[in-house]
Amino acid sequence: MKPSQGSFASTATGETVWLGFTEWGERRMERVAICAHGLTRQGRDFDQLAQALLGDYRVICPDVAGRGRSGWLSQKEDYHYGTYLKHAKDLLAYRGLGAVDWIGTSMGGLIGMLLAAEEDSPIRRLVLNDVGPFIPKQALERIGQYVGEELVFPNLQAVDEHFRKIYASYGDLSDSEWSAMVLHSVERQPNHTYTLHLDPAIGDAFRKNPLQDIDMWAIWDKIECPVLVLRGETSDVLLRETAQEMTRRGPKAKLVEIPGCGHAPSLMVDDQIAIVRDWLHSWVERDKAEEEAARARAEAEAAADGRQNG
Q: Domain AB hydrolase-1, which positions (predicted)?
């Protein structure tokens, strides 16, 4: 099945920016999953996962502002989580979605955490891919070494080599998976070179301000929905002790550690996809059982009323 491409205008920051998304499945599907990507990535990273979820969901994979098919912000200081949260809400409003399940890698997971912590949150279930309420400064410093670089590549092979270096911690990906990441991440220039679909200004926060540990435990403790946490075995972003603490407080997440990768598991390989799909499917089946029980109760009450009136 081929996805459709959509976009909508947001004025959340005072300027108008067009935000793109990839949508899988038929609009008649009531259950919707949102897949939100990492800091320097874009929504097509979730192609394999989205297709695996189609039995239960319509899947929407947004490109966060400054990435992929979305527009770049003219006010560069607006590249922060407050903006991304507003844009996420605008996407839900644009599609008329009152309830969703949210799958977020790294930055996308933090956006999901912020939304899930709100009162009357639209998020029913949350999957966090290698991110949590505490991120050590050292991990941010590592990311800051490459995020926001203005790179020009002579050919696609050079992009491939660059990705295999900076995303080596994704784990063992096939050549076709690396190739797909490359093709969805670049723009061919008139002089036949290639640049990334990425506003370099998203790295300003790493360059202009002293980096500190990120501590969002107060946010975590407000989350009430079920949460699945995936942790790359050697991740420096989601430390093992942080992940374990996430199972003991707040929503008391289910934790699965993914061997052979760091930050972050790609969610492109079958075993990782199965973990997410099966966990979400168990909740879908629970929803269906509750809906069926509610229908049965309603029918029984209607029948009882009919007998009394008769």
A: 34-267
Q: Measured between alpha carbons, how far is 29 from 54 in angstroms, rounded to an integer? A: 9
Apex 250 CA angle, 64 and 237, nearest 5: 50
Helix axes 81-94, 107-116, angle to 10 degrees: 70
Give every CB contact of residue 3 below 8 A, 6+ residues apart in sequence. 22, 23, 24, 47, 50
The pairing of beta strand 32-36 with beta strand 58-62: parallel
Identify the burial level of 248 via C-beta atoms within 10 angstroms of its C-beta, where 0-12 means exposed, 13-18 middle and 19 or more buried: exposed
Q: Cα–Cα distance between 176 and 36 in angstroms, integer?
A: 22
Helix-then-strand count for the chain, H and E: 10, 12
Indicate the domain borders of the chain.
4-150+201-309
The tens digit of pLDDT for each residue in 262-279 reads: 999 999 999 999 999 999
Spatial distance between the Cα atoms of 83 and 69, rounded to a whole number of angstroms: 17
How many residues would you count in the chain? 310
Q: State the maximum Cα–Cα separation within the chain, in Å, rounded to a whole number.
A: 83
Q: What is the pLDDT of residues 136-149, one digit of tens each?
A: 999 999 999 889 88
What does each C-alpha distance from 157 to 34, 41, 175, 194 come to in angstroms?
31, 18, 12, 10
| Nearest partner of 44 among 4, 72, 73, judged by Cα | 4
CATH class of 4-150+201-309: alpha beta
Contact 92, 23 (CB under 8 A): no
CA 211 remoteness from chain centre: 23
